[in-house]
Amino acid sequence: MFVSHLELADFRNYTSASVALVPGPNLFVGSNGQGKTNLVESINYLATLGSHRVSGDQALIRQGQDAAIVRARLEHAGRQVLVELQLNRQGANRAQVNRAPAKPRDLPRNVHAVLFAPEDLAIVRGEPSGRRRFLDQLLVQLTPRMSGVLGDYERVLRQRNTLLKSARAARVAASQLTTLDVWDERLVDLGSEIIEARGALVARLRPFVAEAYAAVAGEVHTAELASELSILGARPDEVTEVDNATVRTEIDAAEATSAFVAALARNRRAELDRGLTLAGPHRDDLLLRLNGLPARGYASHGESWSFALALRLASAALLRAESPAGDPVLILDDVFAELDEARRRRLADAVQGYEQVLITAAVESDVPEPLAAHLVRIRAGRVLDDGAER
């Protein structure tokens, strides 16, 4: 898959923009703050329905405007698809596929992209929520219907937490909360499906991560993934040490359901005291290990950077292997400035075979020459020259 044309209206700092793209590498060059990242962010948003820089949509709409529009023409195996998303300050966002109305959550079925940016260092070094978001975005790209499951789980979780808070305020005894049992059943059904799907994804991703880490770092290290499960007693949001009894590579829905039911029963008193649901996929973590040790807290800055990049390259490789849409659009946002010369060359070699690679850089010479053949210059929210060939 590749994007052949991109149009923006009132997106970030762009009043309007129209840019033609080609298969293979495309390099966007401009000083910091000019809008390079905004261009590639718009494509990644179509694929993930989220920004890698902000949690909400409001910052994506140009100041003073009520809506922003992202429109992209995609091509794969001789077939074209036109996708459009309108982000609204008020009311729900709207989408179209080939000019026909669609739900925004349907867009990831048509757009596959993997973006790596300096912010991804937080996947390795930051809080568990970032690693959960990484897994779930990839899960939705591979299995779009999981978007609905994740959304339903969040709604049930909010309702259950509201009930727990109300019960705490009213000092209701656990034995009197029959309504909670109804929410528990739905929480377990949805949560077990998510836990099983994440576990299967981790298992499929593991070999690609090991291969990508070796390719990027150029060193013999063992990079591994596993799941820390709160239904087995893990508390990654509260405790930094890893309890191996709570770590699993995969878990099926039946086992997850049994463990989830037991965890809710075990935590009932504490949940009523705190007004929070203390076990479930919203409290899990993706455990990243390097040479047998947790990367968070043990890996150096360079090792953490290589691990974060390996996660994204592995995601792209998995999408390439499993998606009927072929290669995802691979986006490298301001990456090469952070790498030494050897890592730049290794990364360039690792991405050369993808159908389309979009790269942003403030300094053109930071990017290896084979990736700079199709050059687009950006200044102050304007595309200065579109498709200059070197």
Provide a concise account of the structure shown:
The chain is of the alpha+beta class.
How would you describe this protein?
- It is a single chain.
- By secondary structure, the protein is α+β, with helices and mostly antiparallel strands.
- Helices cover 40% and strands 24% of the residues.
- The protein contains 9 helices and 16 strands.
- It has helices at 36-48, 121-125, 128-142, 146-170, 178-217, 253-274, 295-298, 301-322, 341-351, and strands at residues 2-11, 14-20, 24-29, 67-76, 79-88, 94-97, 100-102, 113-116, 223-228, 247-248, 285-290, 293-294, 329-333, 356-361, 374-379, 382-389.
- Strand 11 and strand 12 form a beta hairpin.
- Helix 5 (178-217) crosses helix 9.
- The longest helix is centred in the middle third of the chain and has 40 residues, at 178-217.
- The chain starts with a strand and ends with a strand.
